[in-house]
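Here is my example:
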Amino acid sequence: MPGPRATTRPHATIKDVAAAVGMSPATVSRALARPDMVASSTAERIRQVADELGYSPSPQARWLHTGRSNALTLVLPDITNPFFFDLIRGAQHEAARAGYTQVLVDTEESAAQERSHLAAARKTSDGAVLGGSRLPDTMLGELAARFPLVSVNRRIRGVPSVTIDTPAALAQAVDHLAGLGHRRIAYLGGPESAWFDDRRWQAIRAAADDHGLTCSRLGHRAPTMIAGEEAVEGVTAGDLTAVITYNDLQALGLMRGLERRGIAVPDQFSIIGCDDIFGADLTKPTLTTVTGSAELAGELATKALLERLDTGKPPRKLHQTAPAHLTIRDSTAPPPEVARR
C-alpha cells in the first residue's frame, strides 16, 4: 500500500502572525515594515513570532507598503569579462551590508538590451549601478532624472559616477616603455561605444608626445581575447615594438596570436594590458598591466546609490575616483635593437 502522502506546510500569512500575537494585520504590517512607528517591545514580539511561524513578506507587498523593493540592479556589458568579477563583489558586499539584494544584468554589449533592462529595473528595483554603460549621455541623463543611477567608468553630467584612474596609470605605462627604449608604440582600442576608450587613447598619446615617441591607434576592437588575436596582422604590419591594449583580454589574445606566429613576447615584442584581471599574473610571460581596484569602485558606486536613496538627493561627492597604477611583470622588455647593443 502506498505510504501516507507528504504534506507541505503552507506559508504563514500576515493574518497568521496577527492572530498569534493578538493584534490587527495592519499593526503587524506596520511593525514589520516600519518598526520605528510602534513600541520597540511590540515590534520585537511581532518579529519573533513572525520568525517562529516562518513568515516572510513578498517583495511586492513590501514595495506597496514602503515604496521600496530593497533590491539594487547592477548592469554590466559583459558578465564573462573577468574585470567585472571584483566590481560585482564590491557592489554586492555594500548592498548586503545595507540590507539590499543585488540583481545582476548582462547586456551583452548591446545598447538596446541595456535600455530594455533598465526599463524593467525601474519596476523591480530601487536604483541601478551601471558598470560601463553603452547608452548615449543624453538618454542616461534623462533616465537618471526619473530613476536613481550611478555610473562606473563613465562620467555623465548630473549623474553620480565612480571612475578608475586608468589614464594616469596608462601614462605610467608609456613612461615605462620609453624607459626601456621603445620609440614606436601603438594603442589597440576598445569598443567605439565605450566612454573610456577615447580617454585612454588621449592619455597614451599625450604621454607619448612628452617622450617624443611615435604612437598610433589601431582602431576599435571588442574587449575580448578573440579580438586581440585577430589584431595580430595589423600589429605586425609595421615597425611597432610595443602595444598597449584596451584591456587584459585583448592583451592575452594578442600574446597568443604573436606566439602562433613565432614572435616572442617580450624578447621581440612588448605588451601592456589594462585591468589586471584574475590570471594576468599566471600567464607565460606574466602580463604587465594597469591595476585598478574594481572592487573599490563597486563599493563606492553602491554607497553613492544608497546615499541617493536615503536622502532623496545626489550624493555629496557626485564624481569619485578610484586609484590605479602600473604593475610591471614579464611581458615588457627593451626592444630588440636596444637589447642587442
Notes: The chain has three domains: 1-48, 71-164+294-323, 166-292+326-339. Confidence is low (pLDDT under 50) at residues 1-9. Residues 225 and 249 are 5 Å apart (CA to CA).
